[in-house]
Amino acid sequence: MAGRKQFDVGTALEAAMIQFWRAGHADTSVDDLSRVTGLNRSSLYSSFGGKDALFLRCLDRYVTRYGERFDAALADAGDQPVAGVRAFFEVTLERIADPALPDGCLVAQTAMAIPSLSPAVAERAQQAVGIQQTRLRAALTTMPDQTAEVYAVHVAAVNQSLAVMSRTGASAAQLRAIVSVTLDALENAI
């Protein structure tokens, strides 16, 4: 029937998200998005409103998917912040180890590209990093406020660095060693 979308929006968003994750915002063209989604340019624009609008939907999809997993990991630890942060890192390490997914992290690579992004995309990337810090801060309630704030920022930074290191070819053992150092420091601070 004319005028009705003849494609699955979720499937198209997933394909676009993987493309942006693999190549980054700047290195993903509308032609790339058309190829991976199976939609022509006009369908992409009419359905998603252009590259930046599509990217924002993909970034939101990514943040929601992994945010829910991070929240569950931290919530399961209760009043044991080190266990919570360990579980938090496991979410990232499992994602990195999944051969079906691109290396790295869509949020981390977007944050690194902030100087070249549109203001709306740059703002959303900053918000995504801030959400992660807030999530971690809420899990570190057994620590004094100032210390918890510092560790929330530190753990978020280490988490983002795991994604960057995975893209540069760091081994699973190297990534786990990075996590161990952070967990040891957190345990000593508590």
Automatic annotation (TrEMBL):
Key words of the record: DNA-binding, Transcription, Transcription regulation
PROSITE patterns listed in its UniProt record: HTH_TETR_2
Domain HTH tetR-type, chain residue ranges per copy: 6-66
Ubl conjugation found in the keyword field: no
Keyword Coiled coil: no
Domain of life of the organism encoding this protein: Bacteria
Residue ranges flagged as DNA-binding region: 29-48
InterPro entries: Homeodomain-like_sf (IPR009057), HTH_TetR (IPR001647), Tet_transcr_reg_TetR-rel_C_sf (IPR036271), TetR_C (IPR011075)
SUPFAM superfamilies to which the protein is assigned, alphabetical: Homeodomain-like (SSF46689), Tetracyclin repressor-like, C-terminal domain (SSF48498)
GO molecular function: DNA binding
Protein name according to UniProt: TetR family transcriptional regulator
Phylogenetic classification of the source organism: Bacteria, Bacillati, Actinomycetota, Actinomycetes, Micromonosporales
